Amino acid sequence: MIIADDGSGPATAEVIERFRQRGRLMLRHVWHEDRGFRKCEILNKAIVASNCDYLIFSDGDCVPRRDFVAQHKSHARPGYFLAGSCQRLSLPVSQAITENDIVSGRAFDGLWLHRQRQPFSSKQVRLFLSGWIAELLNHITTTKGAFSGGNSSVWRIDIESVNGFDEQMEHGGLDAELGYRLINHGIRPLQIRYSAICLHLEHSRGYVRTDVQQVNLRIRTETVQQQRDWTPHGIRKVTHDSPPLSRVAWWRIRRPHALR
Prior knowledge:
Layout: E1 2-5, H1 10-22, E2 28-31, H2 39-49, E3 54-57, E4 62-64, H3 68-75, E5 80-83, E6 85-88, H4 91-96, H5 99-104, H6 110-115, H7 131-140, E7 152-155, H8 156-161, H9 174-184, E8 188-191, E9 197-200, H10 210-225, H11 247-251
Parallel strand pairs: 1-2, 5-8, 6-9
Antiparallel strand pairs: 3-7, 4-9, 5-7
Helix pairs in contact: 9-10
């Protein structure tokens, strides 16, 4: 597990070390100092720090169900990225959920959430489904698969082929923009919203800025209209002295056909 840390303090490092001492996970902490919202930059650093074929993404405000990794692994296909779903919780419920609620699995029980005064939403039906019914709804849903930082996965070779996240972008659609470039590159979305489930904890967002969102909207629009599959502001920085890596060079790398 690679933790992409956009400038948090010593308390986070202490939590990570405590989990590392359990010996259940190999943890890598990729950190840079706090200089504003730089999620795209730290995610690109985390991608570079990885040494695996396949990458699963989630956010710090998301709680994955216990089968989260298994669902992404079992649905992974060459030429696709996967789009799961996040069940948004109200602020009171988000603040009340405990570690025991998560470990026991009851936090993913729609009836239990309702008893905790979680407002009802038709999207909560995802929490009641499993097996072939979930697979059927994944197949017939009309919701288009979008890359989401909270619950998506992709082959590393594919995300490198579009040069990762666009570091011009701050909060607001940065994940979707990456998804557009993947699609423009020929990588199709595969919807697994009824199989791969996360809870999304509500919280304050002091980093939201209208001017930044307008810039992000412009970048996303240009990516779609111009069918761009590459950003010069990604993993590999492009300058006048450093031209973009040839697409041919990327495609010489053989695309993997199975998870190792």
